[in-house]
Amino acid sequence: MSKPFHYEVGCDAHKHSSLFAVLDHRRRTVEQTRVKHEPAANRAFLSRFPEATPVALETDGNWYWIVDEIEQAGCVPLLAHAQMAKNMMGHMHKTDRLDAEGLAILQPLGSLPTVWIALHQSTFNFRVLTKVITQLTVELLPHVMSRQSRGEKERDPFLHRIGSGACSAERLGRLDSASNSLPNGPSEAAVADRAHEAI
Q1: Which of 28, 38, 152, 183 has its CA 20 to 30 Å from the CA of residue 13?
Q2: What gap in Å lies between CA 16 and CA 77, rounded to an integer?
Q3: Taking the model in full, what pTM does it have?
């Protein structure tokens, strides 16, 4: 009985599609396929590969649901630190093909800068929380910017940091309390509805 081939897969994910680059056991690129983000499309594509095939993707965009489909296809998701991975690839020019291929190549070299991600069963709440935080940020920032435009940022350093694009644990932690004092902000019921939709 012949030994099954081993593959490494890199995934460059975007808003509407993902580009997959596939390396064989000789580290040669044997396939590059773009998959549109339709229900179960990524899972169907990855189901063609042997169980436990590693699939690397970066910590950009909606990685959480793509990780779900990787696991459902029987593959192993490898979540890579986006900026560190780009630095290690060393490409002067950024293209989808180079990014996907680079994520696949870094795997057999042992150089893929992975970050922690547990199995789906133990991280469901974490992934839901990520979706909820993203939705709340979309809902709250317009009200924050509206308040800031009226010259109130001088009286609230926290709003100034949000308006300047700063990102910190304090910012995320205070979004909820900030929403309570914003004029015409979303009601608690509206926020709960949005959170339910994200789940």
Answers
A1: 28
A2: 20
A3: 0.61
